[in-house]
Amino acid sequence: MNSVNKFEYHTPKTLEQAWTLFQENPDAVFLAGGTDYVPLLKKGLKTAAQVIGLHKISHLKKIEKRPNGLFIGAMLTLSDLMKDPLVGEVCPALAAAARFVASPQIRNRGTIGGNILQDRRCMYFNQSADWRQSIAPCFKTNGKVCHQVPRSLSCRAVYHSDLAPVLLALDAKTECFDQEGSFQKSLRELIREHVDLNGRTQREKTFITGFIIPALPKNTWLKFVKQSARASLDFAVVNGALCYLPQNAESPGGSIKLVVGSVAPEPIELSETEQFIREQFAALAQIKESIIEKASAELDAKCALIRDTGLSVKARKRAFGAIGRLIELWHDDLTQRHGATENIF
Known about the structure:
The chain has 345 residues and is α+β, with helices and mostly antiparallel strands. It is 34% helix and 19% strand. It has two domains: 3-121 and 158-214, Uridine Diphospho-n-acetylenolpyruvylglucosamine Reductase, domain 3 (2-Layer Sandwich); 221-343, Enolase-like, domain 1. Mean pLDDT is 90; it is low at 340-345.
């Protein structure tokens, strides 16, 4: 390994020990499974004086039911996530999303926390140091330009997490830890902070211990889709999750959330499509095509695609049909199982 990549490696056994090391070393980074960070380290795209391995902290690997939902430790591997019976019972769509990530070897090492906090990707960034010598430094390498969109004032690299759309559709919370103990923040806030720093060279100073999926009412409908060049082996061209919660006193037509990923620097919520469904819910059986058209138009307007190795922007947009199929599946399942929409649930 190049001398620039030499570092001290620590393996704390408690949250408190890990946080102390993190605070005492300004250049320290947390290491989860390492499937994303270690290749970047080898290429010289990342450097660290102190690396804190988290694999010995048992709290970070547990799954437990809590009064406010299901807690999933940030160090739980994707293989364990997809096989865990409690996850399969409470949130099978999350297990399905984990099953679509990369290869079995990567799923055996990669973690849920690492998948959420993975580095955003760009064909100009994810290269060797020798390759990048021929171009000016970009935002992610101490520069002031985005080679994909030269007039952009920020990095436009794409965020490819497969688990994020599912967790965002569920309004999941993130559990963090500092000197005061455990606290929570929304997953949307965490991803936004990560995306902002991930386009620059600043270190993140958030210690994530896990994720909390809120308790879901009976008959919740939640599905995940992913479109990629070679099924799970590749990063998604587009992925998405649709969550529908049955009607209640506060939401007579139910609550719906549609989140699309791998098409911008952070996942996109199709809020206009959600509002359209809520407003037209009484006529749901007749508006399937209108919903799909609305979602397609909103996604086309909100996406921020860049050139990717092997796929043009035009080819990536053709894959957006996967979101239409997700909507169609939800619509047909809901109307066929329950008949007249005014009697749903």
